[in-house]
Amino acid sequence: MTTPPEPQALAEREVCGLVNGLAQQIADHVRERAVNLGLTAAQATALREMTGPMTMRELAERMSCEPSNATFVIDKLEKQGLVERHAHPTDRRAKQLVLTAKGNALRDRLLELLAQDSPLAGLTPQQQRLLQDLLEQAITRP
């Protein structure tokens, strides 16, 4: 005879399943929209995260990947004329990534597509903010 799981363990398992399910839905959504623009999911993620000039390390952190992976993605975007590398204004060892006019236009189109039928679209802005706050609390809890 097996012992039923502790309530906390059961709750954690259910929350983990929901978070993983939502993450998968968001990843699928990004992948589907990226294909419509001739991008990979990683390229779309990089464009989405480029809210302004930033270093490769900053982009990698936003993409939740290693800098070498972000470099590979940026190399492809640079070849397409979407991103340029510039000298960093305060750190001569670093390069700053900057979207080109073509990159900005594609990013704007990507953001429009990502907003359509988003997995979070069923939540009000207040519910989305609450979800974000709760996830941040769970992640940053000591």
Write the layout of secondary structure elements.
Layout: H1 7-36, H2 41-49, H3 56-63, H4 67-79, E1 83-87, E2 95-99, H5 101-115, H6 125-140
Antiparallel strand pairs: 1-2
Helix pairs in contact: 1-2, 2-3, 3-4
How would you sum up this structure, described in words?
By secondary structure, the chain is mostly helical. 64% of the residues lie in helices and 7% in strands. It has 6 helices and 2 strands. It has helices at residues 7-36, 41-49, 56-63, 67-79, 101-115, 125-140; strands at 83-87, 95-99. It has a two-stranded antiparallel sheet. Strand 1 (83-87) and strand 2 (95-99) form a beta hairpin.
Summarize the structure.
With 142 residues, this protein is mainly alpha-helical. The protein is built from six helices and two strands.
Shape: globular
H and E order: HHHHEEHH
| CA(first)-CA(last) distance | 36 Å
Q: Major sheet: size, sense and barrel closure?
A: 2 strands, antiparallel
Uncertain ranges: none
Give the spatial strand order of the biggest sheet.
1-2
Treating each run of at least 4 consecutive H or I residues as one helix, how many helices?
Answer: 6
The percent range for strand residues is 5-15%
Number of strands: 2
Q: Which structural class should the secondary elements be placed in?
A: mainly alpha
Give the radius of gyration: 19 Å
Helix share, percent: 55-70%
Mean pLDDT score = 92
What features would you highlight for this structure?
142 residues, two-stranded antiparallel ribbon, globular
